[in-house]
Structure formats: C-alpha cells, structure tokens
Amino acid sequence: MTDTDRTPAAATGEKQPFDLGTGPGRVLVWFYGVFTVAAASRSIVQMILDFGKAPLAYVLSAVAALVYGFITYSLVRGGEKARRTALVCCAGELAGVLIVGTWTLADPSAFADATVWSDFGAGYLLIPVILPVTGMIWLRRARTA
Hints:
This protein has helices at 3-6, 9-12, 24-50, 55-77, 80-106, 127-144.
C-alpha cells in the first residue's frame, strides 16, 4: 500500500460521505429512538386495552411511532437518499404535530384521550414539536457538509 492509498479523502479533494448519526445527529438518533419506543408502547397498550375509548388518538400515536421509527432508521442508515427521506419525514412529522396540536386545542372534545402530538406535545415537554425542527436543521446541514 502506498502513501497515496492512505491519503484521507479530504486531502485528495474527494467529498467524504456525511454520517448522519454522528455529532448532533447521534443525539437526534437517541431522541427519535426513545420516542419510537415511547409512542409505540403507548399506542399498543392503549389499542389492546381500550381501543374503543379513543381510536383516533390511539391510531395517531401509532402513526407517530411509525414516523419516529422511520426517521431513526434513516439517520442510522445514512447516505444521501436516507437524508432526503428523513427530511421529508421530519416535515411530515412537523405538519402532523401542528395539525393535531391545533386540532386538540381548537376542539378538545374530538379526542377522548391524548395523543403523542396533542397540545403540540405538551405531555412530552414539547419535544414532539421541537424534534422535527431540529431534525430538519441537522439534515439540511448534512446536505452541505
């Protein structure tokens, strides 16, 4: 192996692939992973024990879990395609949080029980509304790196 074979990509002018799960991305992976487990656990238990009480709320929590899981997977997988997919999912997640959050404030009687995204995630310290914004900022930064 010659010295040129050991030269880092940055030194040769090649663009290094950006690892989405490093630095602040690792914190995002952790939060999304925790929220995947929390939302999935919550929705599964609620759907098994009392689905008829609040089916809309429980299904929305399951949808949130799926979105969180897909974003977690994309961040761990890395690559440009995963970055773009995660960016779209974060935008969809933010739209969901804003729609459900507004809906729960405007018409609380529509939800017999809270969802992960109710009141903009107030039951989760507003992390559900902060997380997609943070994710989109990180994923846009990852594109330019």
